[in-house]
Amino acid sequence: MPAIRIFVTGGTFDKEYDELTGSLEFKDTHLPEMLRLGRCRIDVSIRTLMMIDSLDMTDADRELIVRHCAQSDESRIVITHGTDTMVETAAALARGVTGKTVVLTGAMIPYAFGSSDGLFNLGSAVSFAQVLPPGVYIAMNGQHSAAPITPG
Amino acid sequence: MPAIRIFVTGGTFDKEYDELTGSLEFKDTHLPEMLRLGRCRIDVSIRTLMMIDSLDMTDADRELIVRHCAQSDESRIVITHGTDTMVETAAALARGVTGKTVVLTGAMIPYAFGSSDGLFNLGSAVSFAQVLPPGVYIAMNGQHSAAPITPG
Amino acid sequence: MPAIRIFVTGGTFDKEYDELTGSLEFKDTHLPEMLRLGRCRIDVSIRTLMMIDSLDMTDADRELIVRHCAQSDESRIVITHGTDTMVETAAALARGVTGKTVVLTGAMIPYAFGSSDGLFNLGSAVSFAQVLPPGVYIAMNGQHSAAPITPG
Amino acid sequence: MPAIRIFVTGGTFDKEYDELTGSLEFKDTHLPEMLRLGRCRIDVSIRTLMMIDSLDMTDADRELIVRHCAQSDESRIVITHGTDTMVETAAALARGVTGKTVVLTGAMIPYAFGSSDGLFNLGSAVSFAQVLPPGVYIAMNGQHSAAPITPG
């Protein structure tokens, strides 16, 4: 069973309701709880790189993500990410990471809401990450697509 | 995108609370609702073969499942199944179906309960079904394992 | 069994996640769904007066609420309301409505989230509305308190 | 604010899914979690008297419930109870307890399921218990009804 590295970057996935402000905010990631709910037995290590809306993600943030993926011991990586700029980050990863299977996933509805697509997407992403050949992929809607290789 | 055939056989996955009897019963399958919640965009066709507890599954039931898989036009198949005898059905499929990717999955907690592992497992199963080579597999806990090939 | 009139004004109660904007917005009220979930058999009629954050509620809005309560045929009224200015509206009602039992309630967490206090509060509010003597009350946290009578 | 005593007897309210047996069983009561979810601030003390299906409730069980209510320091009591024989227990309480407000409530769907009526009923029961005059009542569906006084 290949070990999987999970990098958390925020996105809708991890937003939750803040009673004080009455708005959606980031607190801690829900990934461990979601993997427990899914009774996931894969050898997984989770690291939160940032907790931001992907519209607020800068080039420096993307460099940080690319660097962590490139330096990771694990060759199979899942990244949770906001959907708005997931394609840009995937392109940056496709330019900067080789020889590893990197799968980005996200959610349209926060997990903290009862009716999120997040749990389905996470099950999908960790599965694709185990069996797809090296490359950068986006896993959403039960599908996977290869990241576009574009000049940076 | 490969089309996926989903065969429903029942199992914990689809059990729900019956107010009249106060016990867990089968009504309709939750698969369409779960795929909608997961915003699944794979070309999927669902057919309910039976709605039973897998402890009640007979050899004739297994033959029916094998025949439907063997005759299916789609070469990629997901089967929802009770966990108690999932391995037996996987073995029957391994003996009777060739040249197709068949993935069995199930749940430890009914989907109708808020905290089911079913949505995670379904996301996992449809993903494995798309990328694994022909064979019979069990997808649970984020993992996949090949069905044992045993003399029938 | 006395008939109860329910006036909806918005508040956290009815906020839901808008995928397009990624923020919390008002769509339709969840009151009918909540009463169905609670299997409420009280003779209830629901009318949405406004769907706003109570911080945005103006004096004109409050006058509208008071007028609807004063003119309502039913002598028992429940109002769903944002918590931020619930006390102000209760005070306005205490000045403008006599001879009726008016109960304001709300929620700290939107109902659309799985873990809302809204269903508990609604059960509480419709119960207090049936048995408390005429007056204006706030029902939150399982408790009821009379509205302050203040000069307007 | 009057203190409320809550006696737990089991019933659909507290049933949950047991993975080992695949059936609905009693473990611990969900009352504390439900009161927390409802952000209940009433001074409440909870005691589990039994955890049984109300169809299995014997005359001895009912005597036990009556005795605990009669001896309770609190004059306001909520009892969670299976719906099948709630009326019988209410009648026994009406014969055996005087000078106290006793409210029985239950649920048609276990709380552990996401879509239970239990939270609504609990909000209703604790509210009725605070304001109704001494007597024995059943609170379900947002309504309350007095227990029938029948010869025991």
Describe this structure in words.
4 copies of one chain form a homotetramer. The first copy, chain A, is an alpha/beta fold and 152 residues long. Helices cover 30% and strands 29% of the residues of chain A. Chain A has helices at 31-37, 59-71, 86-96, 118-131, and strands spanning 4-10, 15-18, 23-26, 44-52, 76-80, 101-105, 135-140, 143-146. A 6-stranded mixed β-sheet of chain A has the order 4-1-5-6-7-8, with helices on both faces. In chain A, strands 2-3 form a two-stranded antiparallel ribbon. In chain A, strand 7 (135-140) and strand 8 form a beta hairpin. The longest helix of chain A is centred in the last third of the chain and has 14 residues, at 118-131. Chain A is globular, with a radius of gyration of 14 Å. The mean pLDDT of chain A is 93. Chains A and B meet through helix 1 and helix 4 of A and helix 1 and helix 4 of B.
Shape estimate of chain A: globular
Percent range of helical residues of chain A: 25-40%
Uncertain stretches of 5 or more adjacent residues of chain A: none
The overall average pLDDT of chain A, rounded, is 93
Sheet with most strands of chain A: 6 strands, mixed
Biggest interface between chains: A-B, 33 and 33 residues
- Total number of beta strands of chain A: 8
Strand arrangement in the largest pleated sheet of chain A: 4-1-5-6-7-8
Distance between the termini of chain A: 34 Å
Q: How many alpha or pi helices of chain A? A: 4
Oligomer: homotetramer
Helix-strand pattern of chain A: EEEHEHEHEHEE
Which class of secondary structure composition applies to the elements of chain A? Answer: alpha/beta
Content of β-strand of chain A: 25-35%
